[in-house]
TrEMBL record:
PANTHER family: PROTEIN PHOSPHATASE. Residues 21-252 form the PPM-type phosphatase domain. One of its GO terms (molecular function) is protein serine/threonine phosphatase activity. Gene3D superfamilies: PPM-type phosphatase domain. SUPFAM superfamilies: PP2C-like. Pfam families: PP2C_2. The lineage of its organism: Bacteria, Bacillati, Actinomycetota, Actinomycetes, Micrococcales. This is Serine/threonine-protein phosphatase.
Amino acid sequence: MPHAATRVYSVPLATGSLELSWAAITDVGRRREVNQDALFADYPLFVVADGMGGHIGGEIASSNTVARLSGVVDAGTVSPKTIEKALARAVKDIASHPEATDDGTGTTVTGVYLDTSGTEPHWVSLNIGDSRVYLLRDDTLVQITTDHSVVQELIAAGRLSPEEAEHHPYGNVITRAVGPSDSVRPDYVRLDVVDGDRFVICSDGLTKELTDYGIQHFLRQHADPAEAADAMMDAALENGGRDNVTVIVLNVVRTD
């Protein structure tokens, strides 16, 4: 199994700097033949996409979506406007691909980017589907994104408890995706930049096998992003690896 490698990048600020370090890893898992997950992790954008669809449809959807988003970084300006333009292009890519014509083809996409356009930098999370962004701040793990899923809607309506949701038969059914027909706007959350923050961006292949407590445990045990990502991957595969597994760990150090 491949191992993650930690990368670093220094962002100069008006006062001080941000020292970012991150690692990313993906694995087909123990039960799937094809890895339909895709990822992009390079300053200032860190995203995971979890494809779905018959044959290789999911792989087509996730890889095209990530490729279009990586183009936003190459162009130099990451913002809701440029992200949504990229997703609209991805929808056209998916729709025009000969092996992505079935109605079930699509992909989640979730992640964070650093917005330095204002006087103070901010993180912005983006999300479509049920892949997740977690933030460990002050030793407390919080899920930043809200799943777009049938189960989450039942929880929000008070018809299902989080414990019941873990074994619900519709656990894999999502309500929003980047697909061949609909252009979907992500949910965004703005976050302050705080020294010591640690993000985990992952597909549901990780959260099917690890609880939030498990994710927090491995972050506490491993300060280095690559070591944390590898430990989470090993645990997810040991616990069954029922789906493709993708995880990005991103550390933030702010110096003044």
